[in-house]
């Protein structure tokens, strides 16, 4: 098995190097046999194959959600850095139609630093309700228990239960917001915020809806499923 792991890693690294080389705008003595996109696809597929079928020794039977999300964030980068830069340059980014989709996606993908930045920006939002809720949500995203931060799966399970309790408290606070206070003239911020809380609650219907609205596909659904819906999802559970 160690030999297979090494062979798989060698293939993954070789595909990555070929992709980087083919992407360079340089003169070459002869045309490339394949373009950079061809090698990018190989790199992506071999990486997923390695995650699913050739885990590191000792990790064969551990939950796979973190590894799937890392693969997704490495090979299918969303949202883009440009989107974040555009929003961060605005005085009131919540007025931009791209704001809530951006925040929803960073929350879905576990990009806690980006999420925390824009939740902090919401402290300037005219709604005091949203200000308070954003302040509560930020540490939930940054402190979300992830398996790779624990030495034992049992410790991870205990931390996850405590974290879920805090998410439940946030849902109660969110539901207390009066109907008349749930819009700001640009967006029904309550609905958008509720979607993010629904993701953290592990509600499969919300995750599917959000992924559809973001134009995501099975890759994002599967990765999010292993992080939020079924944190014990293992390789052998996947179809």
TrEMBL record:
Tell me the domain of life.
Eukaryota
* GO MF, one annotated term: structural constituent of nuclear pore
One GO BP: mRNA export from nucleus
Listed under GO cellular component are:
nuclear membrane; nuclear pore outer ring
The places in or outside the cell where this protein is found are: Nucleus, Nuclear pore complex
The record's keywords, sorted A to Z, are: Membrane, mRNA transport, Nuclear pore complex, Nucleus, Protein transport, Translocation, Transport
Q: Which InterPro entries match?
A: Nucleoporin_Nup85 (IPR011502)
Return the similarity comment. Answer: Belongs to the nucleoporin Nup85 family.
Task: Summarize the subunit comment.
Answer: Component of the nuclear pore complex (NPC).
Record's function text: Functions as a component of the nuclear pore complex (NPC).
| Name of the protein this chain belongs to | Nuclear pore complex protein Nup85
